[in-house]
Amino acid sequence: MENSTIQDITSSIESKFPNCVITTDSYGMSNIVCSRESIIDLVGHLKHDLGFGFLTDICGAHYPLSENQEFQVVYHIHNLYKNVRLRLKVNLATADLAIPTMVNLFPAANWMERETFDFYGIIFEGHPDLRRILNMEDMDYHPLRKEYALEDETRSDKKDSFFGR
Amino acid sequence: MSELKINQNGQLTSLDTVDGEIATLNLGPTHPATHGIFQNILKVDGERIISAEPTVGYIHRAFEKLAERRPYQQVTPITDRLNYCSSPINNMGWHLTVEKLIGAEIPKRVDYMRVIVMELARIADHLVCNSVIGVDTGALTGFTYVFQEREKIYDLFEEICGARLTTNVGRIGGFDRDFSPVFFQKLDKFLKEFHIIFDDFTNLLERNRIFMDRVIGAGPITGERALSYGFTGPNLRAAGVDYDVRVMNPYCSYQDFNFDVPIGKDGDTYDRFLVRQEEIRQSLRIIHQAKDNLPAGNYHGDVPSFFLPPKEEVYRSMEALIYHFKITMGETPIPAGEVYHSVEGANGELGYYLVSDGGRTPYRLHFRRPCFIYYQAYPEMIKGSVLSDAILTMSSMNVIAGELDA
Amino acid sequence: MVNIVEQPEGHEGQGFFATSMDKAIGLARANSLWPLPFATSCCGIEFMATMSANYDLARFGSERLSFTPRQCDLLMVMGTISKKLGPVLKQVYDQMAEPKWVLSVGACACTGGIFDTYSVLQGIDKIIPVDVYVPGCPPRPEQIIEGLMKIQELAKNESLRRRNSDEYQKMLESYNIETTK
After folding, report:
1. pLDDT (average), residues A2-21
2. Measured between alpha carbons, how far is B349 from B235 in angstroms, rounded to an integer?
3. Domain ranges in chain C?
4. Domain range C27-174, CATH architecture
5. 3-state helix, strand, coil in chain C (%, to 5)
6. How confident is the model at residue A11 (pLDDT cuts 50, 70, 90)?
7. Which of A84, B42, B315, C118 is most open to solvent, judged by the fewest CB atoms within 10 Å of its CB?
8. Residues of chain A whose C-beta is under 8 A from some C-beta in C?
9. Burial (CB count within 10 angstroms: exposed 0-12, middle 13-18, buried 19+), residue B197
10. pTM flag (> 0.80)
11. Contacting subunits of B (3+ beta carbon pairs below 8 A)
12. What is B63-405's CATH superfamily?
């Protein structure tokens, strides 16, 4: 029963959004990679027509080795009626880190997008209040990018040799 | 919630008209009643709150970046510190995520043992939340009674893993040792005697006229708004939506157990209190079933590359020595892939999004923290209420600072 | 007959007891320390367990927790202090009146703990002077009580002019804390 539901959903998405790439991984989750131009329409279609009324999570990821697709915004979305989960991914290049905001469809996206901005520097266009949420307001870099170290670079009291670094 | 108020001239006016000065009140980061470090800058008109602007991040400890540095079994102590009132649930969730990634088969006995530990942690967390709702209304006695029971739960945790609060319990693949007979004795004693103190606490608060007058109608939220804000857990169930990860995506053999999922109606503080009370009773039911039907078997799955071999074999056999060395050094053969797994934490759906590139540490680990997501709705929930109701709303939502800031 | 505290040395007579001023004041201060629980994370829950009936901090004189710095003697910092919270902690410390003691509970407050990250202050003694450190992650309630007992010893044996001495003022200046001398 569940397989046919996922089939219906994926065929509906494929017919409306032919540019999206849909794969199913070995853990049973369907991943959809789409472009940032169509993400809002896709999520709107999922929410209003296919019953995906619950946004589980938004997060970011940094893959510095993929050319022109270094940053990725990952959305997890859940259909509570049919118990189907989907993962949507949008790839962004470092030079052009902007993506439309999901806040108008799901108010839950407000702080999730602020957190992604805080950690990776991805700008969410149309967000009502895009500023840092977990780090200090005057921090000038985005810490979860792979080029930055975990430790505070300015600390002077810990000798790295004692910590195996 | 009434939409009218009495203004300075003694006339009845609507809540939207502001006839005095708007005062700015800083419900600052250190405040006795915000259980955790949250700042709210409130704009109040008299005693009515017009708007609130929360600031979080005062204990941001960079868990996600820290996890990229640590091998998989060393990430467990970090997950402890997410929702520290119920750390075993976070630990189990992490182990289940890694086991999903590596595709391990876990014996039924491990599942039942995990369920016992997780439900004890859920009881501990709900006891804290409910007694703290009592404290915020001035009823301190319930707090004293309930923390005595939490000491007994701490005793049980100490029996299995040696620690009280930040437990770091279990391993990838199961547990490091079987539950001892002393643990079962203590568990039997706990199950027999818990309801005495819990009934005392219930009689103090649940049908208490003063308590009910105080908490009914404080901080309500409707089911649709709650869903759109990403609520999960007892806060969502109090608003009327029955979404429980244990029922919807069962993990750890939860489908074998009979339990009810309590639902509220109005989504106000009293409903949240009652939902948590009932969940404690249902957790006790689950622990009884798990303990009575505990299957025989091994206390860990067959994952030699992730689970330390017994020490006698390490001294004698070459393979065990090599496995021991590799696991301790963190060189475990994790496949590349990405997985999302969620468990029903005490506050809702605690999710782990793990991306692995085959290396010894996670490439990207993201925690879907329920507190962070539902705290966004706080300004909407307290709009129009008085300050004391705002305090009650925050304590009834069970916002744990560690989980919020991660 | 219950002996609550040890009687200090002094001369006893019919209806009077004479002892030195600092012993009497030390006795009073040590047995009535009012703490300010600055509880941020997991150690805060162990503090709640310490306050509750099983471990009972109240029998050491700390019955009344004050959450305002103006009325407390002992600042108990429990839990991780991040860089965002540092100025808040400093302000709370500044608002306390002398004599004041600081108890740093938990590995995160002592040295940053397991969180050697960009956002965590590696120990509160970077911004305020600390009297007693209680290590542990989290420390057991018995350890927190032992930390309090050590503060009691400090309070009992402190000289009355310590807070005005040059050494103390110099120490405060090294933390950039304004002194009113």
Report:
1. 82
2. 11
3. 27-174
4. 3-Layer(aba) Sandwich (3.40)
5. 40, 15, 45
6. confident
7. B315
8. 134-136, 143, 148-153, 155, 157-158, 163
9. middle
10. yes
11. A, C
12. Cytochrome-c3 Hydrogenase, chain B (1.10.645.10)
CATH number for A2-150: choose from 3.30.460.80, 3.40.50.2300, 3.40.50.300, 3.90.1310.10: 3.30.460.80
**The two structure tokens encoding residue B147:** 């923390």
| ipTM of this complex | 0.93
For residues B309 and B322, the answer to whether their CB atoms sit within 8 Å is no
Kindly compute the dihedral angle of the four CA atoms of residues B278, B284, B289, B294, in this order, to the nearest 10 degrees. 140
Residue to test with chain B: of C36, C38, C42, most B Cβ within 10 A: C42
Residue B340 to residue B48: CA distance in whole angstroms: 42
List of chains touching A (3+ CB pairs within 8 A): B, C
pLDDT interval class at B331 (50, 70, 90): confident
Q: C121 to chain B, minimum CA–CA distance in Å?
A: 10
Spell out the domain ranges in chain A: 2-150
- Place A17 in a pLDDT band, splitting at 50, 70 and 90: confident
Nearest CA in chain B to C137: B166
CB contact under 8 A, C82 and B59: yes
Task: Return residues 79-108 of B near C (CB < 8 Å).
Answer: 80-81, 84-85
User: Of chain C residues 126-155, which have a CB less than 8 A from chain B?
Assistant: 137-138, 140
Q: Distance (Å, rounded) from C-alpha B205 to C-alpha B202?
A: 5
By percentage, how much of chain B surpasses pLDDT 90?
Answer: 66
